[in-house]
Amino acid sequence: MVNKKRVILILLLALVLVLPILVTKNVPGSFLESSGENEPETKVSIGSPNGKVNLNFHLSDDGTPHYQLSYNGVTLIKPSSLGFQFKDQKPLNGDFEIVKTSTESFNNTWEPVWGEKDKIKNHYEQVTIYLKEKEPPNRKMNLVFRVYDDGVGFRYILPKQGSLGNNIEIISEDTEFQFANNHTSWWIPNDWDSYEYNYKETPLSEVKEVSTPFTMKTPQGIHLTVHEAALIDYAGMALKSVEGEEEYTLISTLAPWPNSNVKVKKDSFPIKTPWRTIQVGEDAGDLVESDMILNLNEPNALEDTSWIKPMKYVGIWWEMHIGKSTWGSGPKHGATTENAKQYIDFAYEYLDSENQNIGLLVEGWNEGWDGDWTQNGDVFNFTKSYPDFNLKEVVEYAAQHGVEYIAHNETSGDIQNYEDQMDKAYDLYQKLGINAIKSGYVADNGMKDPAGQHHHGQYMVNHYLEAVKKAAEHEIMINTHEPIKATGIYRTYPNWMSREGVMGMEYNAWSKGSPPEHLTILPFTRMMAGPIDYNPGIFDVQIANKPNNRVHTTRAQQLALYVTITSGTQMVTDLPSNYKDEDGNILPEFKFIKDVPVTWDDIMVPNAEIGDYVTVVRRSGKEWYIGSTTDEHARNLDIELSFLDNDQKYVAEIYSDDPGADWETNPNSVSIDTVIVDAKDTIVASLAAGGGQAVRIYPASEEEIATLPNYTISE
Ligand code: NOJ
Ligand code: CA
Question: Which part of the chain is the Glycosyl-hydrolase 97 C-terminal oligomerisation domain (predicted)?
């Protein structure tokens, strides 16, 4: 009997010992694995809330920090090292021990001021690993890993410590990414001044140096994007291949200060790097639905946001790009008071500017455009208009018609000239009731003053954000062209409505432009960073005024872009006259542009193959919008409407490529069907080569149910 008791006791004891191990192995959260009783821990593991994303950290024998990443048991990143090199100090990248770790579980939901969703879930497991060099000078470095169901973000923190000195100059941040396979990759080259390139699709082994977001597909079909979040007071990061290393290894590289090997200068602590991010999705659509970049940014810093208004805008803009008018003064000057009023009238009449937020952009309104403005940034004046443009009169006329005036500030890369005038200009704009600026930084080889500062370097990273903060003080929204890439900062400063940082529509007006596949790649690459001012909505895709240039899509695809690409400020780009027929009547397909919202409550991506096609479904209140686009191949895509309420009938306004449409030979014919649909229907998007489909769905009235036909798939 005694023995029986003892057996039960031993069994119980064994259970108590084994249970925690069984549980920890399969649940999210982190645990330390110690390699022996008295040895310091050298390994840390942490899983995402659903347990699928797993991050392992270890110190190698020489004390070098390494992380590795897996998804559902598939290794995505093999052990990859972390560290820094400084000017006048030895590298901080080895000889470490783990002093301690701390963990945190976080789960809340927040509401963005505007954007792609009305509510965003921020749910992660975090571990902070406190490292210290074993030998003098015993410098400290902390690593924070935040593991989400849709990826991982990690950052370095250098705490205040005597052994690092007061001024630090970072020569290099050596964050390795040892990818497990020769993934298919979509990329643009890195040059520290521009992201305006067409994307290439190649095996990872052909990648040399690329900008982020950098997106890949693994042999298993898992998709991942490497980028950064909260790029603040630091240099922009690109990725370059490592010579002589294992085949598929990339390492971070930072934009330099002019004529220097210094990348980041710091004189206060703690130093926090931006988050290095790896977003993971089971398919390409998961990437687009991910909120990780925003979640890694700080909450909204602005107390009052009532003046922030996402909007569509028209503009004296495309007419310059297609050579109909000029920025500079003279007989073809585009920015005249009279011309501006015509755009306002158009917005009032056809975009219902009294009831929705509509802006008017006027480029070439201010002095400085004459001569070669790309070289003469120092003569731009941001408060003085050309004599044929009366700023006050135009702003007032706009206001009377419910239109917001958007001031254009092209700096041409003369930051000194701009900063000298910024206070005065922003004061004037605020006084006049101007609530929005589109800024520009055309400077192909870096800034003119201070000379050589790169668009993506620390100096400019700070300038762009300072401009946004100053604008906020004046209740002004900003849309930046030639920007630093987006890294989710619009969560913190929601007046940063949009930015370029992309080969946008304008390239089609004066160069070979972008091939049809471009717009099936952007949602998974550039748009992983955030909103884009792409400038969609060209109806005259063959550009009558420019016989040798054209847009490489059908007109129906131009409509779909209002759904597949988001921006806090979305342009209605074409000339007003191109939205009308020969008799001056507005074209019926323009209704989609009028109806489509710019800020959304939800997003889904049911069809996605990068470089081939994409369908994005977005909700705004009770309405749904669907945009589908394809590359140069015609194809049919099924869109199940199961997201609709079950007990409700809806009207679907479907704008499709006409049968016979083709981006090259017959781009402009759009067919419109207005039908009744419900949750059991599947819409077939029949896309022409280079084509698209745009759909608006809203709850049907009794009358509409009685009079409109039900949806049937047309042959
Ligand atoms: C380049 C910008 O991308 C474009 O939108 C603008 O019209 C010109 N610069 C002139 O500022
Ligand atoms: Ca540009």
Answer: 599-697
Q: Is 17 a residue whose pLDDT tops 70?
A: no
**Residue 705: which region, alpha, beta or left (left: phi > 0; alpha: psi -120 to 50)?**
alpha
In angstroms, what is the span from residue 501 Cα to ligand 1's centroid?
A: 11
654, 662, 655: which is closest to 633 by C-alpha?
662
Distance CA 477, CA 439 (A): 10
Question: Tell me, what's the pLDDT at 165?
Answer: 84
315 lines ligand 1 (CB under 6 A): no
**Three-state SS for 38?**
coil
Instruction: Please work out whether the CB of residue 506 comes within 6 Å of at least one atom of ligand 1.
Output: yes
> How does pLDDT run across 386-428, given as a tens digit for each residue?
999 999 999 999 999 999 999 999 999 999 999 999 999 999 9
- Using CA atoms, how far apart are residues 372 and 641, in angstroms rounded to an integer? 53
Structural fold of domain 11-295: Beta-galactosidase; Chain A, domain 5 (2.70.98)
For residue 487, the model assigns a pLDDT of 99
The packing angle between helices 391-400 and 337-350, to 10°, is 10
Whole-angstrom CA distances from 55 to 44, 248, 424 are 8, 19, 50
- Distance CA(213)–CA(238), nearest Å, equals 9
Task: Count Cα atoms within 13 angstroms, Cβ side, for 430.
Answer: 15
Task: Give the C-alpha distances (Å, rounded to integers) separating 562 from 534, 565, 573, 598, 657.
Answer: 10, 6, 11, 8, 16
Q: 363 CB less than 6 Å from ligand 1? A: yes
Is 506 among the residues known to form the active site?
yes
From the candidate CATH numbers 3.40.190.10, 3.40.50.2300, 3.90.800.10, 3.20.20.70, the one assigned to the domain spanning 311-501? 3.20.20.70
